[in-house]
Amino acid sequence: MQQIKQLAIDYQVALIGGSVAYQENGKVYNRSININTDGKIIAIYDKINLFRCHISDSQSVDESKIYSAGKKLKSFNFLGFHIGLSICFDLRFPEIYRRYYQEGVNLITAASAFTVPTGRAHWHTLNKARAIENQCYVIASAQWGQNHPHVQTYGHSLVVNPWGEIILDMQEGEGIAEVEIDSELIHQTRQKMDISPHSLTFEP
Fold first, then answer.
1. Rg (the chain; Cα; Å)
2. What is each CA distance from 49 to 77, 87, 114, 137, 139, in whole angstroms?
3. How far apart are the C-alpha atoms of 53 and 51, rounded to whole Å?
4. Domains and CATH numbers, the chain
5. Cβ neighbours of residue 106 under 8 Å, at least 6 residues apart?
6. Residue 130: closest CA among 103, 100, 97
7. Tell me, what DSSP letter sits at residue 142?
8. Span 70-93, pLDDT tens digits
9. In this predicted model, what pLDDT tens digit does every residue of 12-68 receive, in sequence order?
10. How far apart are CA 84 and CA 100, in angstroms?
11. Helix, strand, or coil here: 63?
């Protein structure tokens, strides 16, 4: 983490350090740590929705065996954007992002490590859906490569605009890219179409 902080200072960029396994008070959290250009931590988010997947009769993944779930959503303001934080499996839970929308968030980050099968099937769709539903930018960094003999991650780091258009897809491999995002496009999209939530009642 000290090295990541120093990178932010040396190159005068804000960085998301993680997600990383972080031990605190005897528990381990899957944590997103956000660092500003001074190397200061400006926001921390602990993953709320832990990954559980039955892959086959002989293989399953359950993050709850290692991690404790976070309890709170986290957003912060930076360079004119109101940024909401999420991690990977959270993308499958739209209620998180709807709450962010209600709080005025206009940019979502999702540090992720989708596997190849789930990535091919759902990665692009989920990120586009979250952007469209909430008329915001989604910036979703994605791990790529052979993590160990049984897990290969999908890659395809994305930036999606408020209209649901993918304006950056990093494809496979490692790399760095630059993309311009426009706060005015968020305003225009939200002005054109009102998707403010309404109170609902359920009748069985």
1. 17
2. 24, 8, 14, 21, 19
3. 7
4. 2-192 (3.60.110.10)
5. 81, 82, 135, 136, 137, 162, 183, 186
6. 97
7. B
8. 999 999 999 999 999 999 999 999
9. 999 998 899 999 999 999 999 999 999 999 999 999 999 887 766 766 778 889 999
10. 6
11. helix
